[in-house]
TrEMBL record:
UniProt keyword terms in alphabetical order: Membrane, Signal, Transmembrane, Transmembrane helix
Keyword Transmembrane helix: yes
Domain of life: Bacteria
VWFA domain residues: 31-221
Matching InterPro entries: DUF1194 (IPR010607), VPLPA-CTERM (IPR022472), VWF_A (IPR002035), vWFA_dom_sf (IPR036465)
Name of the protein described by the UniProt record: VWFA domain-containing protein
Residues passing through the membrane, by range: 231-250
Organism of derivation: Roseovarius halotolerans
Lineage: Bacteria, Pseudomonadati, Pseudomonadota, Alphaproteobacteria, Rhodobacterales
Amino acid sequence: MPNTILKSVALSVGLAFGSLTAASAATVDTVLSLVIDVSGSIDSTEYNLQMKGYEDAFRDSGIQNAITDTSDGRNGSIAVNLIQFGTTASQRIGFTLIDSAAAANAFADLISNVSRFNSNSTGVGEGIELASTTISSWLQNNSAGRAVIDVSGDGTNNAGVSPSVARDAALAADVDAINAIAIQSTTLQAYFDNNVVGGTNSFSLFASDFDAFDSAIKRKLKAEITGTNPIPLPAGAWLLLSGIGGLAALRRRKKA
């Protein structure tokens, strides 16, 4: 009898645990990994401006409205973590569900209190690789309409795995897009375009300095949350697309 009672208790606990696990699974519009350069080229003032930019973004009403938007079949939620990279990479905030303004503000509070990962070199690829791993791990028990890696930095890779190798591996796994924001250097933006950016609706942005980072990261995050590309196509590209559309319509008419 005692063994039967113990087995019953164990079964009840197991069922309860299973229910809690199932209940904790999330379905979000976007699972987003913030990958932030904290290498030695970024001094304490620049680091604070960079982190404050992310903090302010999650307190911004426009960003919060984009997250909680339930139009067009959206769930009105995202899951986001924060990774810092130098020579290697470290997850500083684990994946957090944001489905309300209050939750966004709470995540901003976490950012304001995060400790800096001290590492001198610039392992952009290390950051991408860790972001991809954490996204794949999160998706084992949850689901998302889109998986995005958000990279910000002020220098090219000089440590660890190659960014292009990490990018290609991430896109071959569970990541849909990798975007980047280059700080202080348009040459760096070109480097990010060639070695970091990839996937559906991927893009890069440029911040002229760490003071300009605040507005740039808000623009970037809003695009990532809504699954859009904030870079407008040049007029020539629109003409080309219109021409392609016209040819396709002509072919359809000929077939008819």
